[in-house]
Specification:
Length: 359
Amino acid sequence: MKLFAFELKKLFRSVGFRNLCIGLLILNLAVCLFGNIASPSAEEQQAHIDGYESNLAYIIRVAELNKAEYEITAGKDSYLVKYQQEVIDRYSNLVDAKVQPTAIQGWNEFFNHTTDDLLLFVFAILAGTLISMTEWDNGTYTILNMTARGRKSIRAKISILAVISFVAVLAINFSSLLGIAFRFGLPSPNADICSVMQFTYCPYDWSILAYLTFTVAIKVINLMGLMLLSAVVSAFFKSYLVSIFVSSGAVVVGYYLSNLEAKNEWVYLNSYAAGLTDPFFERYRAISVMGAPVSILTIVIVAIISLSLALMIVYAFSFCRGTENNLFSKIEKGAATLYYLCKEKLSTIVPRSAPKRRS
């Protein structure tokens, strides 16, 4: 706990980190209050409400036609047939539950505002790099690696990454709520998520509050993964520029994949889509896993948790790689020993050719 408090105090002593947090919050609030945010008219919202049931009926009817066609062309046990059946079941459940959207002036604007998600990417890249580079900048990195207590500080750093990720997502979303509520007003979050025009075809019978709670958890895990990526790269290369370039590249590639015209559901397995979360709720998306449709949302959650855990382990080992008895040093020594043993063994199996005599 003392190490955690020490690392946290050291982080907030950084003028750059404090300015980054304050600047991003002010910028996000300014965009909410004065930026150009798409706002549907009352007529558009009413048309959305009136046409909701017919839209669901259309999806179910198309899925039934597709299923009948695929049973002939691909076989009854094919993934295509199973996927269409899953679409039918999910949207039929919404019809049976009598889900009905309502007018929600303000929430449409809140979900149309995506600047906060982009600012979180910026925060993750810069904060992750800054946290990892602190010891290198002040010259304490070597000293920490020489002491057992110093090496344990990596646990505190990882804990801080988790806490900061959680606080950052809550803070940026809260500032968005404040700005949108002041500008447009916000009704009760207990309305169905399908009331938001962007989520007309959302396959989940959730309230807006449930949606916000679930997506905040996803964004926290994704943000921590991106911060860990920045931290790992900076720990290896000891360069702000390289860390920012690699982490930004991961987001840019994700943006490019998510906006491809001809694409399959696998392209949504990236940090950009996971940070937005919207693509997973706009309609039912699934991926074939051993011939069965599995929701893309489930795949993404498993992927970002696994990636975050992997990066956490790599960061822990990379932070201590300067010591003599760490895992990286043992692997290096083991590889060298194996190389020389193999070389010696080969020399006994394949004898050297005798030198040629000069005539």
